[in-house]
Amino acid sequence: MVDVVKKTIAQDGLRGLYRGMGPPLAGITPIFAISFWSYNLSKQIVYALTPNRKSQEFSILEYTIAGGLSAGPTTLVMAPVERIKVLLQIQGQGGEVKYKGPLDVIRHLYKEGGLSSIFRGTGATFLRDGPGSAAYFGAYELTKRLLSTPDSTLNPAAVLFAGGMAGVAMWTIAIPPDVIKSRLQSAPSGQYKGFMDVLRHLLKTDGPSALFKGLGPALLRAFPANAAAFLGYEASLKMMNTLW
Prior knowledge:
Blueprint: H1 2-12, H2 22-49, H3 60-69, H4 71-90, H5 102-113, H6 115-118, H7 122-147, H8 156-186, H9 195-206, H10 215-243
Helix pairs in contact: 2-3, 2-4, 3-7, 4-7, 7-8, 8-9, 8-10
């Protein structure tokens, strides 16, 4: 990880560390909005499927199932954003700078293969985000429950910690399918037949350890980013419940 930072700064300066930042910035608001909306919708689905439940309080397993279901709608936005981001981040490694920015990537991809090219890796994204979101929301609700006081109050520090642990839980599970997804989305058209083809090629050439490349940086980012996300979610929800 340190070697990547050194070489990136040496070649591209500090700007190189922020390459590919445009798509996540543009996509982060709708992605999180859809994620939390679909999570709450999924909880309603779980309620509807268990009409004879003895308690209105969810079990951790039910929270986890709702989290996994929430990945469906989110993937429709996440997949093209990730595709564009990955292509911007890897360009220049061989000396060629192909794209001028996110819109230029979209133009090239659409010209190359239409919408299917832009949405390449959607299935792989869901295979990452399904289990990842299950762990994400399950870990958050579990940690929140453990930190709650007897009167069910939760202070901001506890929300931050629970959110951070949710991010760690998600990426610990999601990093292998994320590696495969990134390979699939960044490869030239026709190089791989799909998710399983990337997996076979990766295991054959680099071994099982290749599936966990990038775990360290992902976990370093996951804790603070998701701590902030859940604090914003809880604060916004509290404010809107007060106003409406």
